[in-house]
Amino acid sequence: MHKEFSRSQRMGSLILRTLNEVIHRDVDDPALQDITLSDIELSQDLSIAKIYFSSLKYERDMEIPSSGLKRASSFLRKKLGSAIKVRHVPELRFFHDQSTAKSMEISELIKNSKKSK
Question: What is the largest CA-CA distance in the chain?
């Protein structure tokens, strides 16, 4: 039994994969070298894409990759439009994905609790 995926899920997956490739291949900004786009939420009408990013290099100061993504936003949108061939390319909004930091924090707590036993 196969699972059906909605149009927004397919589009989101394609956008995320394409943007990761473009950032690592075509963007020369040092602030964006070590980031990973991890998740995407598309609005119902596919006009806005909330894209979540993480970076182990800049874990302490997320303003560096955040400002880099803002600077590259129009370039990324243009590249995305030519790569995915859609009539309307969604507006790209970038947000820090805190799940990596939270999982590292939880792992540290578990590690410390095992040491105290």
Answer: 60
* β-pair partners for 50: 41, 93
Q: Is 8 helix (H, G, I), strand (E, B) or coil?
A: helix
Q: What is the pLDDT along the chain (117 residues), one digit of tens a residue?
A: 456 568 788 899 999 999 999 999 998 888 888 888 999 999 988 899 999 998 877 667 778 888 899 999 999 999 999 998 888 899 999 998 877 667 778 888 888 887 766
- For the chain, the domains span 7-115
Q: Is 72 exposed, middle or buried (0-12, 13-18, 19+ CB in 10 A)?
A: buried
Q: 7-115 — its CATH code?
A: 3.30.300.20
